[in-house]
Amino acid sequence: MLENTQVTTEIDSFDELQLEPRLVKAIQRAGFLHPTPVQCQGLPCLLGGKDALISAPTGTGKTVCYAVPIIHQLLKEESTMDPNSTSFHDGMQWEALVLVPTKELAYQVTATFQLLNRYNSIRTLALLQKQPSSWQKVALTHILVTTPATLLHLLQQGTYSIKNLKWLVVDEADLLFSFGYEQDMQKILPSIPAKVQSVFVSATLDKETYHFLRHFEDKRHAMQQIRIKHDVTQEERLQVLAKHHYVQVEKEQDKYLVVFALIKLQVLKGKILIFVNSVDKGFRLKLLLDQFYIHTSLLNAELPLLSRLHSVEQFNQGKSSILIATDEACIWNQKMKSSWKANANTLDKEKTKEQENEFDLSRGMDFQQVAVVLNLDCPYSLISYIHRAGRTARAGKAGDILTLVTSEEMPRLQNHFEGMGLKQEQWNPLKVKMSQVEPFRYRVEDCLYKITKNVLKEARATEIRREMLNSEKMKEYFAHHALDFEALKSDRPLNTRTNPHLADIPSYLMPSALRPLNNGVSCLT
């Protein structure tokens, strides 16, 4: 059983912890002047060797909370070893394991560890590939950050084990212990040594997580809970700082018309994060907007990891103000839940195929200064809606969430609003008069008509070719296969901007008025 007692020992500054000097220097260099609330409670607990279940909202410093104790203990261990011994630096298998649901989050967690290891020799590795060529550094690392599927594949080869593990961190535990990951977790956890210090971290925890943790704890020992009491929870923050809008359209294709009008007429202001539920729909929207000379960036599971990270970086730096993100996880979870009882064998096959992507855009990604979250597709679950919406209205700033729905999707959106505790007067229908966007219909539908299945296929292939040409791993191959490089380079690029006149809106097509609604969203009247 899990202990329900809250942590009683807290700190007010990092100085109280008497951390290893090199770690203190790294913390200061990173600009962490004062511990956050979760760190005030979590650091003394974890430095004291206790297991912990940490629940705190996104952006509260949970990664630093578990990274600092791990690094501190490793540095203490290093200081007590024989100076002539090389076992700490060479050939020692990793001692700390951090499990995360997505490759993007693995990179972010690894970056935090590397930031704190600036002045020491502790090595952190993000293991993201299942190929043997990527395993060479595993034996030389001290802290391994990876996904459950990748770790399981590594352990099944028989070369590595986790018998010497001292720390286990499960980040985004509510996701890793829920549908889609739990089978891998159930295979991994029995191999975890009983002596390991365990830390389970999440922004949200549900009954399924507690049930799984109880099953885990029955075999081991009690776990201390750390719950940060905030004046404003994530749901309350989204109630107070965010405004929830929706537009109901007659048919699915009308969504493209509305999105075009809202963006082209600058009704939506600031950085816009658009969520779609399929790769094809993401490409379709990008190709549509591209024909009107509206620049967008694309983010989906098909793109290589470094390309995805680059897209997020460009968006966060303001070099791209519109990012179209494919959030396939919510649809996949919906399909899996509905088919679980019907065909468990088929489900396992689908799970293996789908989970290879280990990609969830609504979580584990750091999107900065998002003014508007636009759902082209209504999320299937309340959790997905909350995580998408949580990308805006952060750091005390206001934000807007706009969801486009058909009549069939409207009941689902109403359930999300009610699940968040929003009062009906907080449901803000965006007053888009279709009569005023109707003049754009011919242009939009004509451009959509040109985006055939073959065009979508070519667009996806173009992205892959571009990544191959820019890939560091392919440089050596192309150095010995010049003809292949030239052939790939000479492939006809996809050109969607064939009508320059579409870049501008004729005055006779402009709506009669635009009335400001708030900082991020205006209203067509």
From TrEMBL:
GO terms for cellular component: cytosol. Residues 12-40 form the DEAD-box RNA helicase Q domain. A motif (Q motif) lies at residues 12-40. Its EC number is 3.6.4.13. Residues 43-223 form the Helicase ATP-binding domain. Keywords: ATP-binding, Helicase, Hydrolase, Nucleotide-binding, RNA-binding. InterPro entries: DEAD/DEAH_box_helicase_dom, DEAD/DEAH_RhlB, DEAD_box_RNA_helicase, Helicase_ATP-bd, Helicase_C-like, P-loop_NTPase, RNA_helicase_DEAD_Q_motif. It comes from the Eukaryota. The keyword RNA-binding applies. It holds the Pfam family DEAD. Residues 241-438 form the Helicase C-terminal domain. It catalyses: ATP + H2O = ADP + phosphate + H(+). CDD domains: DEADc, SF2_C_DEAD. GO terms for molecular function: ATP binding; ATP hydrolysis activity; RNA binding; RNA helicase activity. Belongs to the DEAD box helicase family. DDX56/DBP9 subfamily. PANTHER family: ATP-DEPENDENT RNA HELICASE RHLE-RELATED, DEAD-BOX HELICASE 56. This is RNA helicase.
